[in-house]
Specification:
The complex is a heterodimer of chains A (274) and B (187). With 274 residues, chain A is an all-alpha fold. Chain A has one domain (2-11, 71-273). Helix content of chain A is 69%, strand content 3%. Chain A has twelve helices and two strands; from the N terminus they run ααααααααββαααα. A two-stranded antiparallel sheet of chain A has the order 1-2. In chain A, a hairpin with a 3-residue loop joins strand 1 (183-186) and strand 2. Chain A is globular. Chain A starts with a helix and ends with a helix. Mean pLDDT of chain A is 84; it is low at 5-31. Chain B contains six helices and five strands. Chain B has a five-stranded antiparallel sheet. The relative contact order of chain B is 0.12. The chains are: A mainly alpha (274), B alpha+beta (187). Chain A binds chain B through residues 48, 52-53, 55-57, 60-64, 103, 107, 110-111, 163, 241, 244-245, 248, 251-255, 258-259, 262-263, 266-267, 269-271, 274, and chain B through 65, 68-69, 72-73, 97, 100-101, 103-104, 121, 132-133, 135, 143, 145-147, 154, 157, 159-162, 164-166, 168-174, 186.
Chain lengths: 274, 187
């Protein structure tokens, strides 16, 4: 592009000089043809360039499109609240915990919590008609709960190469075409939206770790205190395995709230498509 | 007879594409391997690692196109010098962010899952990063530059999140209330 511009400049300048010194019309003609040629090339180049650009523009979502965000003031507030909690409570506690508890044990705890949430994955894979995933998950649960010492180890993945298939009710709703609705940031839990909030509630019924009145018989957690303790433990354990990642991600943000919101919504779309 | 020629022709076209595509996969797998070797090498300082890793990846990234897409419609409003300034600042930002992510590297294995041709001038290459717990999908998006018929990366999807899409949204929202100069500064 730049080269072509130089060439044109060169020809134009040369044209000027030739005009003055050699008034021979033939030479001028030749020069002007050359200019026309490169002009033509330039035009073709810009057209191609524009084509490429418009192809990209079609591929990406319209960046000027307003996202409906009626809760943005509240969301911003909760985002900075969560940010403070992560920075001044969750991170220091996770660091201390990571210092005391060796990594394999923390990984094991994470595995065990994941394993016991099997009903969520089972039901949601089933509801979406993903039968291979249902069978994978069932096999994983049986193998890991027994050979894997109550899910502490993950022999299903390590030795049998059976992958986990995370599906939650928010994804099931999305799978059947339910729109996400407004974005809503939950205290402690972070970004969510109306659909996923509904999903989270349903998954609470399915999870053995969340107490639900009159379902205590089927649950490991019998009351709200226990549930809160389990969830806090889960967050600390998980964060201890991902120290520094949040800060790292945060650096890419010009403005934290919309940044986290867009990432969350994009990720959910990808999760649902999977 | 005619049918056979047609099939043969079709096959050769596919084959032609396959060579082109397999080259991307090969080049990328070599690059990824090299970067991993550098990251695992304990005799390098973090700074040396960053420099070396960037050097390896540089030639496949089209920073200018990335900068252009990330600014969306606003790009056309810029003057030539502004475009240059922005591209430069954006390139720096992307590299910085990439280098920052390398710091989190903790012996995870990277598996190349293969390439997929989306259309004649778009190819995606999927990598899987296997951590202790989760597996992350990283997808590199390539486009064929018309000028030299070479393939370049114009976007990367990390666990389903497009880096360039995220920047587009951020820049557009930023420019609604603030000026281009402020944007340059904050990069």
């Amino acid at each position: 592009m730049k080269n072509i511009l130089f060439i044109i400049m060169f020809f134009i300048l040369q044209g000027c000089t030739t005009k003055h010194t050699y008034p021979a019309s033939e030479k001028i003609k030749k020069v002007s043809i050359n200019t026309q040629d490169s002009n033509h090339a330039l035009k073709k180049d810009t057209i191609e360039n524009n084509l490429e650009t418009s192809e990209f523009e079609d591929e990406f979502e319209d960046e000027t499109k307003e996202t409906s965000d009626p809760l943005s003031t509240y969301n911003r507030m909760i985002t900075s609240f969560n940010d403070t909690i992560i920075t001044y409570a969750l991170n220091p506690v996770s660091k201390a915990y990571a210092y005391i508890v060796p990594r394999p044990i923390r990984t094991g705890v994470g595995n065990a919590i994941h394993n016991i949430q099997f009903p969520i994955r089972f039901v949601n894979n089933l509801l979406q008609g993903k039968f291979q995933n249902v069978s994978d998950e069932t096999e994983r649960f049986i193998v890991n709960s027994t050979v894997g010492l109550a899910g502490f180890l993950d022999p299903a993945k390590e030795y049998m190469q059976i992958p986990a298939h995370n599906e939650d009710f928010g994804q099931t709703l999305g799978y059947y075409g339910v729109n996400p609705g407004f974005h809503i940031v939950l205290p402690f839990f972070g970004p969510s939206n109306i659909r996923d909030l509904a999903g989270l509630t349903i998954d609470g019924y399915l999870s053995p770790l969340v107490n639900v009145r009159s379902l205590e018989k089927y649950k490991l957690s019998k009351n709200l205190t226990q549930t809160t303790a389990i969830i806090a433990g889960y967050f600390i354990n998980k964060n201890s395995l991902h120290l520094g990642e949040y800060e790292n991600l945060k650096k890419d943000a010009l403005d934290l709230y919309p940044f986290l919101r867009d990432i969350y919504e994009q990720k959910r779309v990808a999760d649902i498509e999977k | 007879m005619f049918k056979r020629i047609l099939i043969l022709l079709l096959f050769s076209v596919v084959l032609l594409n396959a060579i082109e595509e397999s080259k991307i996969e090969k080049v990328m797998s070599v690059k990824v391997k090299k970067v991993l070797q550098i990251l695992k090498n304990k005799s390098y300082s973090q700074r040396q690692k960053n420099k070396k890793a960037i050097k390896i990846m540089d030639s496949v990234f089209d920073y200018q196109t990335m900068a252009k897409i990330s600014l969306g419609k606003y790009w056309k409003k810029l003057t030539k010098t502004e475009k240059k300034q922005f591209s430069k600042a954006f390139e720096k930002k992307i590299k910085h962010s990439y280098v920052d992510k390398l710091k989190l590297y903790n012996n995870q294995a990277v598996i190349i899952k293969g390439i997929k041709k989306i259309k004649s001038n778009r190819i995606t290459l999927t990598n899987k990063i296997i951590g202790n717990h989760e597996t992350y999908k990283v997808v590199y998006l390539f486009y064929k530059k018309k000028k030299n018929n070479q393939w370049y990366i114009y976007d990367v999807h990390l666990a389903g999140v497009s880096i360039i899409q995220t920047y587009r949204k951020q820049f557009s929202e930023f420019l609604k209330t603030k000026s281009f100069k402020q944007l340059l500064k904050s990069l």
